[in-house]
Amino acid sequence: MDALIFPTLAENAEAMAHYMRDQFSFCGVKKPQRAQLEYPYLQASLTLSIPALIHEIFRNYHQTEREYHYYAIDLAQKNIQRFSRAELIELLPLLAEKSWWDSTDAWRKVYSTWGLAHPAELEQIFEWFYQHENYWYRRVAIILQLGFKEQTDTALLTRAILADLTTDEFFIQKAIGWALRDYSKVAPDWVKDFMQQHSLSKLALREGSKYI
């Protein structure tokens, strides 16, 4: 498969970098255009062998510009049905590289998609992230079940939240509120009871209560 090369659009790159607090360089390709450029490559990736695909994911993730990191994650998401647990384990170290909310949340979707399709493996996936020393991994544990609705394992959700209940980290507390808010769409009484029984931060409480 040919390598995808994003064009450099300087008029967009500076603003995109500034939005991410100037932590990453950007080519300046906004999401709609990036999706168009990626499409044929994502389709072609379905014909790659798994080792070649993993190599392509790592190669792109080790590029400088942020668009390549997004593309690497999109490659994983596109091929998620082809992955076994072994490939998910192999990709885990990438979550610790160039970490910020955008990449963490995109990786979360990869693991969530696989976990929803393999419910018997969900707890094992959860354990990879739960109580990890890196809080970005723990954020994944907290929001792992976004969109699971009635299939949400509340025992896992409870464990993830309680492990970081008093963690003084914005992105952790935001994740707690997000997870509770999402689950409140299908189980508002459960979320109400949870919030009454535990001392949540103001941020988590505010976010979790939005739909109640």
Automatic annotation (TrEMBL):
Xref: Gene3D superfamilies: ARM repeat domains, Hypothetical protein (EF3068)
Provide the transmembrane region boundaries.
none
Query: Pfam families of this UniProt entry?
Result: DNA_alkylation
Q: Which InterPro entries match?
A: ARM-type_fold (IPR016024), DNA_alkylation (IPR014825)
Q: This chain belongs to which protein, by name?
A: DNA alkylation repair protein
